[in-house]
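USER:
I would value a second opinion on how I read folds in token form. Give me a protein, with the fold worked out from its sequence. Write it directly below this note and I will take it from there.

ASSISTANT:
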Amino acid sequence: MMKTSLLAAVVLAAASGVASAGGQAGSLGVGAEFQLSGLGGPSINYDAGQFHLGGFFSFFDPSGPDNTVFEIGARFFYHVHSTAMSDFSLGGNFGLASIPVNGMVNNNRDTDVYLEPAFQIRLFIASNVALSFTGGITIGLIDAGGASVQGQGIAGSPGFDPVSFSGGAGVHYYFF
């Protein structure tokens, strides 16, 4: 009996494969993530194995006329190193926000554009649930002037403070 159990355990161990981060290439994740600039919200990620990419769309409409805030963004990260339950990636984010400006007659909206070269660490707390942590440089363009080195923002509110440091986490559930 002991030899049969040992043989069954050896065969089972030899036949099993190593789990990879993200479950498997071709998986789609849904969740929420914020960029370094503070833009973010509900998002979708596609894990292709060697890289992952994704994007988000959000809006906020407080009471009052013509004051809706729209945010859209995209990200791409190449996996430099991966383990069974994590990966370290290099890439970046692109974010765009349309924000109302009070008191201006003809041009009552700012268009903030952010480019963010960054690194990202994803930790898979289960084979298909990932927490992500991002750090890098935020470059504000068009109406969002300035640059900043910071961690991932969680405020979710538009705006840009070039001297702040903020931290946070994104989360995605992958279907495969």
About this structure: Residues 23-153 form a domain with the Porin fold (CATH 2.40.160).
